[in-house]
Amino acid sequence: MSDSPRGAHFAKPTGPRDNEDEQDFRPSQPDLPDFGATQQFSDAGQAFGFADDQSAPHIEPPEPVPAMNVYLGGPGQQTGRGRKQAKRHHPGRVVLVVVLALVAVIGTCGFLLYRSAQAVQADAKVVSSTASSMKDNLTSGDGETLLNNANSFATAASDMHKETSGALWGFAANLPVVGQDVRNAQQLAGIADDMGAKVLVPMAQSLSGVSMSSLLSNGKVDVDAIQSLVNALSDVSPTISDCSKRASAIKPGSVSQVNTYVEKAQQLLSTADEGAQTAEKIAPSLPGLLGANGTRTYLIVAQNNSELRATGGLPGARIPVTVADGEISLGKSTSLGQGFDVNIDITDEERSLLGEAPAVAASWANFTPDFSHAGKYLADGWNQHSDQQVEGVIAIDPVFLQNLLALTGGVVASDGTAVDGTNAAQVLLSDIYWKYPEGAKQDAMFAEVAGLCFDQLMTSLGSVSLDDLTKLIKQSGEDRRLQVWMADDSEEAVMQELGIAGELDSDPANPVLGVYVNDNTWAKMDWYMDLRTTVGTATKNSDGTTTYNVTTTITNRMTEEEAATAPEYITGGSDMTSGRGDMVSLVIVLGPAGGAVSGLSDRATNGQLEGLDGHYFAVSTMPGETETIEYQVTTAAGAGALQVRQTPTARTFTD
Question: 22: burial class by Cβ within 10 Å (0-12, 13-18, 19+)?
Fold first, then answer.
C-alpha cells in the first residue's frame, strides 16, 4: 500500500462469506485533483532555475492504492439482501475524506509556495542587476544613480526577506531532502536585506554627489568629503563583517545550484569584509595625511631605473610637496649635487653586508632593498640640508609615471618632445641621454617634464576611473614602482596595509626570495639590463623544508654599435668597468624568512638584513653577454611555494 494514498474504494460484499471465490468489485477511480506537493516543489525549483540541475531531488507522485474489500460486520455476523442493516458510520469513508482534505491542503500549499518562489525569483533578479550596476556607478562616480540603485536593491531584498520568512517557507524548510536548501535561501535573503538597508544605502548616501572629479579638483582634495566617507565606512563595517560570518556558517544543501549561489555569496562577502576592514584601518588617517590637521610636507623622489638602486633607481630628482587642508603645492626640484654628503645612521646588518655606502651619500641611501629603511634615509639626507623638513617620502619611477599618464593624458615639452602613457619611460630613461649628453641640459629637461606631468595629474586625475586608479596603485606597489615611507608609525602601518611600504617580506609561511641590484658602473647602462630569476625543481627534505634550484641571469642588451656611439654619460666613467658598454652590477640575494640560500658563499659577502640570509656580490657583463648565477634556496618547514621579488628594472624583456 502506498504511504500517501490518493483515495481508496471500500466495497461491501453482497453475500455471506463462504469457501467460494469471492468477487472483487473494483469500480473505476474517481478523478481527484492533481495537487501533489512534490510536483509543486518541482515547479518551484524550475522557477529558481534548479530544475536544470540533474542533482536536484526528484520525487515521483504516489501511485493510487488498489481498491480493497473490507468486511464491516462483526465476527459471526452475516448480512443478507433482505435483511435490514443497522445504520452506522463507516470509518473507511472518514479516512477517505481526511486523506482528500490533506492532499488538497498540501497541494494548495505547494501551489502557493510556487507562486511565492516566483516572487522571490523576481526580487532576486532585481538584487543581482542593481548590484552589478552599482559597481559601474561607483567606478564612473554617478552618485545619483548609485543611490537609486541602492534603494532598489534594498527594496527588493526586503521583499525577498519578508516572502521567505512566511509560514509557507517555514513549512518547506522542515521537509526532508530540500529543507536545507530552503533554509539556505531564507538565510541569503536575510543577509541581502541587511546589506541593502544597513550598508549599501548608507554608503550610497554618503557618496551622493561624490566622484573623482569632485574629490580632486584644481589641485585640491575635498577633505570634508573624505571625512564623510570615513565616518560612513566606520558605521557599516560591523554589518559587513556580521553578514560575512552568517554567510560562512551556511551549510551545503542537496541542490547544487543553491550551493553555487551560497558559495558565490560567501566569496563576495568575504572579499567585502576584508576590503572593509583594510579600508577601516586606512581611512581614519587620510584626512591627516591630506593636511586636515595642519600642513604636511613630503619628499617626492624620482628613482632612475637606468642607474639601478636596490629599491628602484638613483634618487636623482627630489621634489618637496606640501599639503594644507587638501591643497597640494609642488616645490622646486633639487638635484643630488646639493646635499650630496650626509651622515645617516644605518643598521649594523646593513653596514656589515653593504658597507658604508648608504650612510655617507644621498645617492646611495637606497642601496638597501628595504624601503622602510631607505625612505627614512632619504628623508634624513634631505632634512640635513634643508630648512623644509619632510614627514614622508614618496618614491616613484618613470614606468609608474608612464602608467599614470596613460590614465590622465600626456604632455609636450618645450623642445616638442611628447611624453605620454606609451613612451615616458623611453624618453626619461634613454632618449634624453642621447639627445642631451650634457648633464645641465638633462637636469633642465627633467625639471620641465616633472612640472608638466604634475600639472597634468592635478588637472586630469579627477576624471580618472576610481577602479583604474586603485588597480594601478595596487600593481605599482607589488612591482615596487610606487613606495611610500611615513615618519609616523601609525601612518607607516597604513602604507603597509595599502601594499606600498616596500618593506622586506618576513612571513615564513609565504616565502619570498629577493634579488636586488645596485649599479656600480656610475652611468645609465641599466636601461639595457635584462634581469630574470627562475625557480626550478623542488626537493622535499625529511625535516619538512623544501629546497629549490634557482637561476638568476643578467644580460647586457646593449649592442656593440650602441656601445661604440653612446655618450659617455650612458657608458660611464667608473674604473670598475672593463671597457665601453661594460655593465657592472652589485647583486643582493636575500633568502626567504625562516629559510636560507646556499651556493653563493664562495663568490659573495655574506650576512643578514632584517634577519634574512643575505649575499652580496659583483657581476660584470659586456654588450650582448649573459651572466648566469645558479644557487639553492631552502624554505621553512610547511611553507608555501617560493615567490621572487626583484628590483624593478627600466624594461621587461620577453624574448
Answer: exposed
Q: How many angstroms from the chain centroid is the CA of residue 385?
A: 42
Query: DSSP character for 341?
Result: B
Provide the grid cell at 86. Answer: 443497522
Q: What is the pLDDT of residue 278?
A: 85
Contact 514, 612 (CB under 8 A): yes
Task: Return the number of other C-beta atoms located less than 10 Å from residue 27's C-beta.
Answer: 8
Q: Which of 409, 236, 193, 220 is nearest to 329 (CA)?
A: 220
Query: Can you tell me the distance from the alpha carbon of 451 to that of 389, in angstroms, rounded to the nearest whole number?
Result: 21
Phi, psi of 627 (to 5 degrees): -100, 125
- Comparing CA positions, the residue from 529, 486, 464, 274 lying closest to residue 390 is 486
Q: What φ, ψ does residue 555 adopt, rounded to 5°? A: -115, 135
Q: Name the pairing type of β-strands 626-635 and 596-598.
A: antiparallel
pLDDT for residue 241: 95
| pTM of the predicted protein model | 0.78
CA dist., res. 85 & res. 77, Å (int): 11
Decide if 322 contacts 295 (C-beta within 8 A).
Answer: yes
DSSP E strand stretches across 545-625: 546-556, 583-590, 596-598, 605-609, 612-621
Kindly tell me the burial class for residue 30, based on how many C-beta atoms sit within 10 Å of its own C-beta (0-12, 13-18, 19 or more).
exposed
450 in helix, strand or coil? Answer: helix
In total, the chain counts a number of residues equal to 655
Q: How far is CA 207 from the centre of its chain?
A: 22
Query: How many Cβ atoms sit within 10 Å of the Cβ of residue 285?
Result: 18
Asked whether residue 377 carries a pLDDT value surpassing 80, the answer given is: yes
- Mean of the pLDDT values across residues 458-480? 89
